[in-house]
Amino acid sequence: MKYLGMIILAAAILGSSPMAQAANVQITAQNPVIELSISEQVDNRPDNATFSTGVETKAPTATKALRDNSRQAKQVIDKLKSLGIAEDDIQTTGINLNADYQYDRASETNRFVGYRVSNQVQVKIRNIDKLGMILDALVSSDGATNLSGPYFSIDDDSAIKQLARQRGLANGKKQAESYAKALGYTGVRVLSIAEGISNNAPGPMPASRMMAMQDESVPIAPGQVGTTITLNISYEMTR
After folding, report:
1. How many CA atoms lie within 13 A of 10 on its CB side?
2. Predicted pLDDT at 68
3. For 94-122, how does the pLDDT look when each residue is reduced to its tens digit (9 = 90+)?
4. What are the distances in angstroms from CA 83 to CA 55, 76, 78, 80, 130?
5. Which residue stretches of the chain are H helix?
6. CA-CA distance, 136 to 127, in Å (whole number)?
7. CA 238, CA 178: separation in Å to the nearest integer?
8. CA–CA gap between residue 180 and residue 34 (Å, rounded)
9. What are 115-164's pLDDT values in tens digits?
């Protein structure tokens, strides 16, 4: 029988190419086919962290709210730079201007009181050991009014992916050979491989909890992040 499969080039599997290239080809299989989905996760200590921070201001007019916010946001960005964070690792992710209302219980209506402006930036920290100090410094006098994160990751996880890939291939072959031998065949040959990659990291610390710790030396526990390779492999049983 003919089998339509996606073959990942050997160079990509061996890690010499940053991107797996694939091609659809017709493969003739004379014997029964085994299809397996193999997932392997490798954990490692993260080496960078990303968090969001910013300022929110209120004022009777939109112009004043925006000007006040811009001044405070610049102070936060300047503070980040003074803490050794590169300009390329600081990115504005949103500036929002909205009318501000307060609920009036007496009239049971929302009463317009002015405008609210928020400015958020995303920050990448390449030295996790300094993360606690940086967070603490940001919420000092006239600093950031909110924090979200951190999200931990590994800057270059190519070696980790390669290890997970090798384990997945070995595990898949072992399982396929077990099936083949149970059915009276002597071995297996690979017909196709398709790969999926995912990264698993602990969820971000709630902003309310982070703000509550601003008077302390903010404790940071980066733990480990997992890189998972999922291989969908088809084998033909051989004699």
Report:
1. 2
2. 96
3. 999 999 999 888 888 898 999 999 999 99
4. 18, 11, 9, 5, 9
5. 10-13, 62-82, 131-138, 158-182, 207-212
6. 15
7. 12
8. 8
9. 999 999 999 999 999 999 999 999 886 789 999 999 999 999 999 999 99
